[in-house]
Each structure stands twice: as C-alpha cells, then as structure tokens.
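Chapter review. Work through the record for TlpA family protein disulfide reductase before attempting the end-of-chapter questions.
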Amino acid sequence: MQKFVRRGVLAAGGTLLGALTARKWLPAESRAEEPPPAGPHMALPSAIVAHPPTALPPFGFTDENGRPRSLADYKGRPVVLNFWATWCVPCVSELPALSRLAAATAPDGVAVLTVSVDRGGVDAVQRFFRSHAIVGLPVLSDPHSAALSALNIDGIPTTLLVDREGRERARAQGAIDWNQPDSRDVLRRLIG
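Structure tokens for TlpA family protein disulfide reductase:
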C-alpha cells in the first residue's frame, strides 16, 4: 500500500512539474541562470518567473477620471502591476511599501500601478487613499475583476513584474516587503 501512495505522490509531483514547464513558468529557485538572492529575507519569495518572458493578453482598468486605461499606455516603461482591494488585509499592509517603491523607482522610469478590484470603483479607492494617507500611487480600478480573469489571477494581492516590452517577467501572490533591498534588486534585474 505504501509504495502505491509513494507512486501517486511522485506522479502528482511530475504532473505539476510538467504543467509548470508546459506553461513556461518556473519557480525562481529552479532557474539556474537567475538564482534567488542569499540571506534570511529572500526577495520575492513567492515569485514565479516567466521563462521566457510572456506576452500579456489585452486587459483594461479605469483611472481616477473614469477613463479607460491599459498596459499599452505604459509601453516602454517597466511596470510593477499590483492588484489589491481595500478589504484585503495583506493588500492594505503592502500599500505603504508600494508607495515608497514608486517614489524610489520613479527616476528609473518604473511605473508602479495599483489596481483595485473593489466593487465601489474609483470612489472607494480615493476615499481609502485619503483616509490612509496613501500618496504617490495612481488611483486605478477594475471593479468587475476583468483583468484578474484575463490574467488568470486567482487571489490578491498579486503583483506582476512587466518589462519595457509589455511582457510578464514574474508574478508573486501575496504581500511583498518592497522595503527590502533584495526585493528592489530582483525588480531591477527582472524589469530594469
């Protein structure tokens, strides 16, 4: 009985590895050419690196004036694209670090975009930013979660690192400590 269980576990692991390879997604730890940084606080520990970089499907969101926007509006710039909501505790805890990241990377031309999936849309985001003193981040909204669906995102917060050509280089699900120098180093290496 034990050997059947062991075979089942091995088969499941092989299936998962095959699925990751078929989708051209590999965890950062398994990429020989880009080893994870050393140290107790690894940068982007939950990041999955796209190998090779992957073109993104078209998707849209709305800016604070209600105008439709898309990733194409930022072509030629590296983008940190974060999906969040006001009711999501890890999302909210990550916002101040994203605000500081936006300020720190602005001279390099990096666009830090935080797209809220709150059903209340832009109004909910504006109220939240005011009440929590969030500055330096654009007010962007996707109240119907169309972008999440187009990008095959099943949880928030999720952050995509997008290069200057508009290709996804990595994605991480869960809050990231953007204050860690190694997080910024990985960001520069992947999309800088």
